[in-house]
Specification:
Number of domains: 1
Largest sheet: 3 strands, antiparallel
Distance between the termini: 26 Å
Helix content: 25-40%
Structural class: alpha+beta
Shape: globular
Strand order of the largest sheet: 1-2-3
């Protein structure tokens, strides 16, 4: 998923990325990434929901 002109640092495009620890949102141009609270604000969720989903993703990767 992409968010056009939404980076708080350089005002360019954000995208959803994934690594061994889970998913995160980062900028295509400056490579900065959002904190959990910024992700929650962007996605319209509470910070607890985003934090828990990341925690479960990390625990799932460790168990595999």
């Amino acid at each position: 998923m992409y968010w056009l002109k939404s980076c708080r640092k350089c005002r360019e495009d954000l995208y959803e990325n994934k690594d061994s620890f889970g998913t995160f949102i980062s900028c295509l141009q400056c490579s900065s990434y959002l904190t959990e609270s910024e992700e929650a604000e962007l996605l319209g969720q509470s910070g607890e929901e985003v934090g828990l989903s990341k925690a479960y993703a990390i625990l799932g990767n460790l168990a595999a």
